[in-house]
Amino acid sequence: MKKEPLLYSVTPFDLSGHRVRVRLTLRNPDPGGQSFSLPAWIPGSYLIRDFSRQIETIQASSRGKPVGIRKTANHTWLCEPCKAELDIDYTVYAWDLSVRGAHVDETHAFLNGTSIFLCPDGRSQEPCHVELCPPPQARNWKVYTSLPEAAGHPRCARRHGYGMYIAPDYDALIDHPIEMGTPQVVRFKAHGAEHEMVFTGVAPNLDLKRIAADVQKICAAQIALFEPRTRRAPFLDSAGRYVFMTMVTGDGYGGLEHRASTALMTSRRDLPVLGRDNAGEGYQTFLGLVSHEYFHTWNVKRIKPAAFAPYDLGRENHTRLLWVFEGFTSYYDDLMLLRSGVIDEADYLRMLAKTISGVQRAGGRFKQSVAESSFDAWTRYYKQDENSPNALVSYYTKGSLVALGLDITIRHASAGRRSLDDVMRLMWERYGRDFYTGAGTGVPEDAMADLIREATGVDTRDFIERHAYGREDVPLESLLPLLGIALNWKPASGGPTLDLRLRDSHGETQIATVYEGGSAHRGGLSAGDALVAIDGLKVNGAAGVDRLLAAYQPGDTVAVHVFRRDELRAFQLVLNAPGATECVLERPAAAG
Cβ distance 47 to 382 under 8 Å? Predict the structure, then answer.
């Protein structure tokens, strides 16, 4: 018997209370008792987040009569047996201002499907209809989403309107976030594919034309990378358009990829404004974020590790390949800015040098490989504490350097005939292009060396073992000169140092991290200590520490007083010189 589509109705009904009302109508429920679940995590953000905790009320009914429903585990519910159509009505509290959850107030509603759509167990492969309803208190709000309109349905939504939308299955349903409100919007096409950029939040005099022109170049370059012959965007079959949803705040930063859209957060100071030619480095940071999330349209949304094909949204999905899916993406994000002409080589080398410097400062790279970091994302990388810089390595940043090293190695060994681009295209052809229409298999855990050799003819197995599965630094001092780029180190700016990271909190200057082996570590200071005085002089904020230390030389001994909890403690510290941790990349001038 053919089953009807799952029917959802969504209404942000209490804007000041940040609440969303959802109804799920299920025809032909399990006669033995229908169970439901809500995802415990959202793909792209590898942490169990327990979205179900935000469901405030839930009840079930059939033909107007109550049906018993009870919670059976953290993320699951079970209804009593019911033979007729079953309605589940529930209220979601939506006050998570992030790219991962749901956020509703008087200005907008942003909804990730993992926060609001219950999944009937055993029915995840069935099509879904979603009716988006206007908030009663809001006027002139429009809808922005990559969910396709339900063509042919009597309540089919028009573009940006309320009404019925459709998804082919539950996985697609939760992969098209929804923005409602009155944002600033700009549109462009890249190789014929429609793109929409939506900016929510206060952003005066936003230079939308400049943003659209720059992002269009980035998108076009990435489409051409993966589809050099057809220049066809991967989302055209499933959505028909791509939507960038950006929440503008005072100091936000972050992104989360979806199959035909991305959710972004950015600081308004990083966005260009009308009448100002120099948008600054902050704008390049924003463009790098855009480039990163758009590259995920191919690399992780369609080319996936086998552990994600399919996702199990009720528990952690472990893989040792995030250094490929996040690290390679982090390598290409800034590289695509250069290739598209949005930045020049000097800017690119400056951004690359910053990444190299950051990786070099992290002592955790000697204790953890990027493959181990990938596997431990759920319990360590996404749960960082005061000791994380000493214990962890980032599969984003060091992963990007592994990608850079592989790219240079391939180019050099093949005399410039092959590159990492060829690897990405092979992975796209084999695992990504038909992921949602074919078998949907993912990249095996141990496949990268073989894939690289097949795509380029270059054997990189030893390189991968040493630098991805091992803990050796990528030898960029010897690799970058093969591209004509010199890598040098200079002493970090500033005077003597205590080798710690500080934060100002509630009127105190607190130690956030004590770097292993440094002055503070040897002297006995600990994270959480509140600095009071150095040699009897009061500490006034984190910036004040540097001013006090400017009167000393490396090797001097200073008395440091701190409060540890409510106890005053005194320590003697020997100051260190700044380490040689600033990377400088440059292309030497040709002799002549």
Answer: yes
